[in-house]
Amino acid sequence: MVKEIMHDPLFLSQKSEPATEEDRQVVVDLLDTLRAHLDGCVGMAANMIGVLKNIIVVCVGDKQEAFINPVITLKLKPYPAEEGCLSLPGVKKTIRYNEIELEYLDFNFKPQRKKFRGFTAQIIQHEIDHCNGILI
What contacts 129, CB < 8 A, 6 or more positions away? Predict the structure, then answer.
């Protein structure tokens, strides 16, 4: 189900809790909401739809993928970036890494480990910041 986008910085600055299989519907709702906003959005975290769970969804090529309880285990090649956010106005400067390695659970809650680079890595880092209550 497509959910309303959260804009409250006090809510968005709270740290998310680990997700469990009981949060499967949150994953579905988050994917549905991202797909409804593809014209101006490439990633979302669950807190953007009002749920403080450690779930992100990201456009990877022409697909939208879910990453549950994602943890970046390796960061290489830092660079300065400017990012906007569907939840917050404006553009902010930050440091991102061109290459990351990620451990996460997939849509079926199976453990995965994968490397990402470029814009996809940047999106993942932005959304993980959301889960950690870091506002960009």
Answer: 135, 136
The pLDDT assigned to 88 comes to 85
Q: Domain map of the chain by residue range?
A: 9-131
The CATH code that applies to domain 9-131 is 3.90.45.10
Residue of 21, 22, 103, 127 with catalytic role: 127
Token digits of residue 96: 């991102």
DSSP state, 17?
B
The distance in angstroms from the start CA to the end CA of the chain is 26
Q: Is 37 left (phi over 0), alpha (psi -120 to 50) or beta?
A: alpha
Question: Could you tell me the pLDDT band of residue 86, with boundaries at 50, 70 and 90?
Answer: confident
Q: How far apart are CA 128 and CA 125, in angstroms?
A: 5
Tell me what the pLDDT averaged over the chain comes to. 95
Is 82 labeled as catalytic in the residue annotation?
no
Residue 136 has pLDDT above 80, yes or no: no
pTM: 0.95
